[in-house]
Structures
1.
Amino acid sequence: MAKKYALSPQATAHAHTAKVTAIGDSVMVDITPELKQVFPHALINGAVGRQFYDLPTIAQSLKLKVNSPTTWWSTWAPTDHQKRRIFRGF
């Protein structure tokens, strides 16, 4: 696995214990097997057709802090204005 993804032994060891939450759309669904190889303890929540504005509801249901460095966004590219609107309640 380390060789496949060009990870150092230290990065591999860290990835195997890291607390990662991945929330995304269909791209997240597609890459779940690869993410699980690198981050075996990751909580992955992907859904086809999901939109960025769904994130607050999902984060709340998972009891996440959306400003956490362990939270990933998939292929969404929200504007700064959209981010401010979405995260206003957090």
2.
Amino acid sequence: MTSSTTPMPAERIIPDGSPSAAGRARRALIKQMEQLGYMDAVHGLNTRCDIALLVVSELVGNAYRHAGSPREIRLSWQGHMLTIEVDDRSRTTPFVRPQHSRGESGGFGIAMISQLAESWGTTPNCHGSGKTVYAQVSLDPAA
């Protein structure tokens, strides 16, 4: 596995308006995880990789569902810690819905992220409108 001190350049994905952004983000993340030695073509994914892919998919999907589309997706690393950031145009802050209010129309995504990620939250985004929703997932094999 690549040393946790080996820098990995951040990946910026600018969606083109089509629903392909989640797939593009997953492919970029798989490439990064392969380069860092977290997965390979022979052994495939591990549980932490699965979690990272699920979290990026959910964050991008939420941007489509609640804000029309993501504005920008960023994947960055500090050691074994992956930070996934998704900018959108909505100022509405996501929250974990109480279990009784989840159902056919949704409400499970942020609750799932809050359980799977080491941390998550929102900040105003750099575009001057909207927000950035982020989640951090550890791929530390010792965790």
3.
Amino acid sequence: MKNTIAERILDFLKSFPPFDALTYQQLFSIASQVLNRSILSLWLFSRVLWF
């Protein structure tokens, strides 16, 4: 399954040190974690507003 958003985050990060020294797989892992935490934060925020 292709994760386009994570790949866009990866493309952004790879332009800046120290991320430019990491492998594609390492950057993809970091980008996926950033994406997952962002989604979780948005979900939690929406639950707080709902109550």
